[in-house]
């Protein structure tokens, strides 16, 4: 028995060591980008791999913030992210609750169709959407891109929220109806507070997707004052003869900071279950 426990312990230690080494290997590109952002060298290929800059400087960050329209890109990304999140979550929460609680004809077929649409590569529809938006004069407009993002993220939101609504005991709703609460009041006062962790996490996932989305942002936003952060980063490297990887790395770090802050703020909601204790035995 002791020999078995010893082998099991050694196996766990070896597995943890492997995981730690994999995590360290994954951190190397990030550490290199941070080092490059604080270095004076403008080329990522002219010197060897270094994780600590030889002569650290904030000049690259100063150039991004004050010599490039970074705050314009930031404003556009915030508008796109928040606008998409509001539309997608408004539709997703209501639709997910309906799919979870009501049994109507075509329910399963509709869910399967949504899943199929989500698996459909967006790039295949890009040309058709571009032609349609050109006719409708929605190119270079935040509204046009928000509609595209919201349409794709609604599917993710519906499936994600439906799974959470399925875990909420039906006894809670039955008790509220006995107390005289209508469907709307029950949804607003009881169900939505219980589903707050799922709503917050899904909303942040939508924001992160829009924040990092590159393909549609660079295709449908053709004017410099309409670029998002992804489009702005692309423009920094658009010149094949004047690429400065230090400035690009500094911009990439600035773009990542808001997402990291949001992620750390919602960590507690990612593992919490609010229905525990909701129904007394």
Task: Explain what you see.
This protein is mainly alpha-helical and 281 residues long. It folds into two domains: 2-57; 69-270, MetI-like fold (Orthogonal Bundle). 72% of the residues lie in helices and 0% in strands. It has 13 helices and no strands. The protein has helices spanning 2-37, 59-66, 70-101, 107-119, 126-136, 142-167, 170-178, 183-194, 196-212, 215-220, 229-236, 245-265, 267-270. The longest helix is centred in the N-terminal third of the chain and has 36 residues, at 2-37. The chain is globular. The relative contact order is 0.13. Mean pLDDT is 82; it is low at 273-281.
Helix and strand topology:
Blueprint: H1 2-37, H2 59-66, H3 70-101, H4 107-119, H5 126-136, H6 142-167, H7 170-178, H8 183-194, H9 196-212, H10 215-220, H11 229-236, H12 245-265, H13 267-270
Helix pairs in contact: 1-12, 2-12, 3-6, 3-9, 3-11, 4-6, 6-9, 7-8
What are its keywords?
ABC-type maltose transporter activity, disordered C terminus, BP-dep_ABC_trans_perm, 281 residues, MetI-like fold, mainly alpha, MetI-like, 72% helix
Spatial gap, N to C terminus: 40 Å
Largest sheet: none
Q: Determine the CATH superfamily of the largest domain.
A: MetI-like
Taking pLDDT < 50 over at least 5 consecutive residues as the criterion, the unreliable ranges are 273-281
Q: How many domains would you count in the coordinates?
A: 2
Strand content: under 5%
Structural class: mainly alpha
Q: Mean pLDDT, nearest integer?
A: 82
Instruction: Return the string of H and E elements.
Output: HHHHHHHHHHHHH
- State the helicity in percent bands: over 70%
- Which topology of the largest domain does CATH recognise? MetI-like fold
- Give the C-alpha Rg: 24 Å
For the record, the CATH architecture of the largest domain stands as: Orthogonal Bundle
